[in-house]
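Hi Y.,

Following your request, here is the sequence exactly as I used it, all 393 residues.
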Amino acid sequence: MTFLIAALAAIVLVVILQDAFEVILLPRRVTRRWRLMRIYYRWTWRAWSSVAQRIGRKSRREHVISLYGPLSMVLLFAIWAGSLIVAFGMLEWAAQEPAASSPLTEQIYMSGVTFFTLGYGDVVPHSGLARGLSVLEAGTGIGLIALVIGYLPVLYQLFSRREAHVIQLDARAGSPPTATTMLCRHAEAGALAKLDELLREWEVWASELLESHLSYPMLAYYRSQHDNQSWLAALTSVMDTSALVLVGVEGLPPLQARMTFMMGRLVVVEMARWFEVEPSRYDGDRLPPDEFGRMEASFVEAGLDWAGGPDAQTTMATLRATYEPLLDALARHLLLPVPKIVPDAGASDHWERGHRGLIARRLVDELSARPSHGRTERSGSAWRRLRQRTEPD
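Below is the corresponding structure, written out as tokens. Let me know if you'd prefer a different format.
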């Protein structure tokens, strides 16, 4: 019996320490299927999301879902520490001298005191092996606590870098972000060439997201500041934009759109592989014929040169079929909505809400429509009209 308990404790120690090493220190993806963290997140997320989906009120449901990411990390650290304490306590119990034997519960208590280096001294090891185990456990406890303290700032730094780009899409692509809005806003401002630079930035963002979320997959469960924003929605809108540029946007070289699309699809494929989700039988259509016509009308109104031709809708649907089923599978698994390609009528951005938000929107639209060579009389009159609206009575 003593041998079996010691063997079980040794197995637990190896499994926990290996899992902690892979999660905190190993900077690459672990391809092994049977892994404690993978099993832990699979079952806890399944239970948490099942409970959250039963909540009728959307805002409360999203709040409950947003708690999962941070709480899952706290619980994972607690499982590591608790398992190590119990395993070392079992080893201490097996290593004690027969003349000074004590119950297993007392040895687990001593293990907890040693792990957190409290040093009460009410229970002490007597054999040489037990003393060696106590020293090893104290070092393990200090090391794990130090790693966790240094690990959390890195995790939140990666989260902040991801979300900074997601928030920027509010002004560039709307809320939620859509490809039509992104293309139209750049075309209206006569800055379609800047879209090439933007797609380059999002190519870098996608590569950083892939590296960080494969090394720290729990980041995928961390939610954005607004319910209609997420890393998955941002990735979707950027891939849609790249696809539209490839299909029929004139005046913009297709190379960068191609590179960004390829990187975005790589992110989708690898994330779906980690979460072990299969492409869904996507029965929805994010760009039906009427929406496609509305998108082309928006392009004409914005002054965008659209040269998709009569087969543009079919070509776009074929290209979307290479990534939409995987995006839909990830969205269903993570409970993250996927944005449309064409925004809803009357949709407003987050920045134009609140006090005098409509006036702010009109001011920005009028001022950004001015000729770039100075304040003309025409733009000045528009400025005066809008200024009168903002002045108090």
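The chain is about 70% helix and 0% strand.

Thanks again,
Q.
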